[in-house]
Amino acid sequence: MSLDEAVLGTEYMIKDISTSDEEMKSFLFSLGCYSGEPITVVSRKKNNCVVSIKDGRYNIDIDLAKAILI
């Protein structure tokens, strides 16, 4: 299941980042988004999600959310 299908407020473990785009992988890694890390969707708008990773909150677009497998 990808992050765009996640239930709001539920903590999930990241299983994988599913993309061939190395720049996207590098960006997500810089946010602390990698396998084994807990992630929570805080809110969802039309084409964006606010996620909580470690001690930070980030606004990511739907393409990034679809690349994060939980």
From TrEMBL:
Keywords: Iron. The keyword Repeat does not apply. It comes from the Bacteria. Residues 1-70 form the Ferrous iron transporter FeoA-like domain. This is Ferrous iron transport protein A. It comes from Jutongia huaianensis. The lineage of its organism: Bacteria, Bacillati, Bacillota, Clostridia, Lachnospirales.
